[in-house]
Amino acid sequence: MERDYNSTRPKMAIKEYGRNVQNLVDYALTIEDRNKRTKLAYIIVSVMQQVNPNDSPNEEYYKKLWNHLYAISDYKLDVDYPFEVVKKDITLRPKEHISYKENRIKYRFYGQNTELVLQTLAEKEEGEERDQLLVIMANQMKEMYISWNKNIVSDDLINEHIMKITDGKLKLPEGVKLVSSNTILKKIHSVLSVMKSSKDKKATNKRKPKTRSKSTYKKRR
User: Fold this and answer.
1) CA distance 221 to 200
2) Residue 130 CB: number of other CB atoms within 10 A?
3) For the chain, which residues make up each domain, given as ranges?
């Protein structure tokens, strides 16, 4: 089983913020209550700030974050924005790679951004919104774990990892059941099958002999 199958997932509007932020924004779009959407938007922006920090945050920096949030939602997120947001093409410049020390990442298969999101959520006010975001993250973590380790994993272990990453500040709500390991495995196998089929098709096309088109010319006497 291959570990990386992001190529078949929906494209992210701004890749630098990662799949987790995209998932949180997608969830925000499903919330009907405007006040709840706005509250969640502030949480997401704080997560974005952790993922792409600025040494000297100022008004322009926060304007950029809110405009990026708007762009990630495909300009559909209707909330009370603290700054004016506009619809335009946004492309972030590739950042210089940061080498993180091994002891700063507790679980490599979740990645640095996942831990940043969880740590940010841990500092937010307890409530339904935070619990719902945590469940989204937990399902994402379960998929990452299975993809990386090639094995099923229990909800209890995911919860244990969440608690360790957040120093016991976060844990899954009582009675919550994450997506089943079998469902995730079927999804992974399906994705890999599509990828293999695509590779085989490309390989077949490469093996096909090129036919030269007959050139029409008059033979010189």
Assistant:
1) 49
2) 19
3) 9-86, 107-177
